[in-house]
Design a protein that fits this description.
349 residues; 10 strands; six-stranded parallel β-sheet; 11 helices; four-stranded parallel β-sheet; alpha/beta
């Protein structure tokens, strides 16, 4: 069934409003679909259905022996365990999972080819989402009018920008209610208690020799390493003159805004690891942003020393970041970081 997916030119989508943009990105750039039908506007003659993790229960309401379903799980194995695993039974349904990020499931669909020039028509999209996707500049201008002072304060040219989760604050994981991944969040909170960057770097390095990683599954290992890596690299980069960090993108739409087109963007890969393309990468491609990708875990291997080798490379990279000139303009800073990553991430180094 996985190969058949790419024979389709159109698909129906069942998803909450908050996920329409993500579905659009995947349909356009990774599934190469020409037309998609949203929710109430589904085309019953179309046999391919893309189902959001929150709408899994709707599969049993769709009739037809030729119908095929792709279920999207947005946060890797974490969301698969929450929304699907052992919770639903589907009789005579043709289903494949798209677990976005690292996963242990063999039924997972992997999307590694980019259809950069594809165009996708959306049927059934509301006015707000239509403007959001097709006329993003209107959204940007509206936000400028709503938050003029904030926008002016943050406007910049020739900076290297990162948008997203970065800093790990003290005790930021202490109240996490996830019981499935209890050890993971115990270690993350343990890490958060260190009050300086040197101790945090030592915690990362010690993962090679202590037993913590042995108590985690591959997805948890990815998440632990990626969260620590993000925290340390952001803490280092904020000391650079031409680096700018946004913990979220709610008020400015920085990643899509034409106001920030003269900057470079930093893509650190998904926290769940195991993915070549994800929402941030596809957004930069769609809006023609200049960006660099620094991702040590785009593909997970079964080698027992795989994660130890990756931690060694990450630690080496973080150490050498300190040697880069802190006054470089954004373009040159991006190039220096990219070259350093490529040098360290070579095989057998």
């Amino acid at each position: 069934m996985k190969k058949e997916i790419f024979n389709y030119n159109e698909a129906n989508i069942l998803c909450p409003n908050k996920r329409i943009y993500q579905f659009y990105l995947y349909c356009r750039f990774l599934l190469n679909l020409k037309k998609i039908y949203l929710n109430e506007k589904v085309n019953e003659k179309c046999d391919l259905y893309l189902i959001d993790q929150e709408y899994v229960q709707k599969i049993n309401t769709i009739k037809g022996s030729n119908k095929k379903f792709i279920i999207f799980f947005w946060n890797g194995q974490f969301d698969y365990d929450i929304y699907f695993k052992k919770r639903f039974y589907f009789k005579d349904k043709k289903i494949v999972n798209l677990i976005i990020g690292n996963s242990n499931e063999k039924s997972n669909l992997v999307l590694e080819e980019l259809f950069k020039n594809n165009e996708t028509q959306i049927i059934g999209i509301g006015l707000k989402n239509y403007i959001d996707i097709n006329f993003t500049f209107i959204k940007v201008l509206l936000r400028f009018l709503i938050y003029p002072l904030y926008t002016i304060q943050n406007l910049c040219i020739n900076k290297l920008i990162f948008v997203g989760f970065g800093h790990v604050e003290k005790n930021s994981f202490i109240n996490n209610q996830n019981t499935i991944n209890r050890n993971l969040f115990k270690y993350l909170n343990e890490y958060s208690l260190f009050d300086n960057i040197a101790k945090r770097e030592k915690y990362l390095e010690d993962l090679i020799t202590n037993e913590k990683l042995n108590e985690l599954n591959p997805t948890e290992k990815c998440y632990l390493i990626q969260v620590i890596f993000r925290d340390i690299i952001i803490k280092k980069l904020v000391k650079f003159k031409n680096f700018k960090y946004f913990s979220n993108d709610k008020n400015l739409s920085v990643q899509r805004s034409f106001l920030f087109r003269l900057n470079h963007f930093l893509d650190l890969g998904p926290k769940e690891g195991g993915l070549k393309f994800y929402e941030r990468t596809l957004t930069y491609i769609m809006y023609k942003k200049k960006f660099i990708s620094i991702d040590f875990l785009p593909k997970i291997e079964t080698d027992k020393d795989f994660f130890n080798k990756k931690i060694f490379k990450v630690k080496n990279f973080l150490t050498k970041i300190d040697r880069i000139n802190k006054d470089l303009i954004g373009k040159k800073l991006a190039l220096e970081i990219k070259n350093l990553f490529e040098e360290i991430n070579k095989k057998n180094t």
